[in-house]
Sequence to fold (101 residues):
Amino acid sequence: MRALLINPETRSIEEVEISGRDDIVRLVGYETIESDEIGPNGDRLFFDEECFLRGASARLQIDSVVPVSGTCVIASANEDGSDLKDVRSTPDTIQARLKYL
Fold:
């Protein structure tokens, strides 16, 4: 399924293919994955729950969602993130809502 990979260090957003949660873990780089809803269309921002403990300096914020650091993935999912689907947002729509901190 289609997802978006955000790298705050290079300030890039790219479309990627994932087959499930294991791919999100691999892309983010850590097992401690958490997600936040980033809009009414089911898209969720997946990130390392311990991102600030790890000392990553590159941070980002989408709209008024709490800022996070490190590599993130956006995919559509249910509330607990277990039922993944194709992301509905595009790189351009996310870029318009994204701030690098």
